[in-house]
Structure formats: C-alpha cells, structure tokens
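hiii, so i know i said id send this last week but things got crazy w the move. better late than never?? heres the sequnce for the chain we talked about at the cafe, plus the structure i predicted for it. fair warning i was half asleep when i ran it
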Amino acid sequence: AMQLAGRWFLVSVASRCSHLAEHSHQLEATTVMVTVLDGQSLAISTLRKLVNQDSLDSPLSFSGHGHSSKVDVVVGEMDPSSFAILYYQKGRSISVKLYGRTSRVSDAVADKFEKHVRAVGLSEDVTYYFPTYGFCDSADEFHVLD
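okay and structure toks below
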C-alpha cells in the first residue's frame, strides 16, 4: 500500500465506455492523490480543474463504488517510482488505466501499457491519452506576464 502513496498523473485509459468515446475531445489533465490511512486502506482523490472526487479503497486489489455498481480494481504492473497499470472491471466491462509519477511516461512504459491493453482484448481505437498541460506544482501569489 505504501508504494501507491503520493501523486499520480492519469496518462491513458483503454476502455469501450461509450461516454469516454463520445467525450474524448474533452479530456482534461487529471491527477490522483493516494494516501495510506491505516497501513491497509487507501484514500484516493481524483483532481481535475473543476472536479474533486474522493474514495476509500484497500490496496492492490480493491473495490471502488461508482454511480450504480461495484468496480473491482487490480494492479497489473507497477514501478512505484514511475508508473502503475491498473485494471478496472465493472460487471463484464474492463478498462485499463496508466498512471505516471510524472505527466509523461517513457516509451518503454507506454509499450508495457499497450501490451496490457491488448491482453484484455482492447485496441488503440479505444485507447485515449490525457493531455499533459494544465498541471501546476505551485503558483506565486503575484504573477506578471510580459
């Protein structure tokens, strides 16, 4: 659980979700903050410009609760210092998400993600990459633009 703690950037999602397909042109840079609560449970906050969603989960194989039914999440592959590939399953539908410690991942990590995507029968046609712009580590109180 401790290896998942910290800030992650959502890099890519492979999913047959019709909502994602219809609105892929509106994808926003997204970060996820993972906090270990008691050595086993995780608090997960998803942050976008106008959305903040919190959930509590347990590590490595955990369940999140979506709008209508249970979502099972399993860590497929991970290097805690650089990336995590997670499988999300809701009913018979499965998606794969790639998270990075930075908003961009290496080509080798992208290749690993694509192999995981193909392994569950998904393709590049349903793989969406999130924008890398819009992240700020910090901001000054006063900014002057020339």
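btw The two ends are 45 Å apart (CA to CA). thought thatd interest u
miss u guys!!
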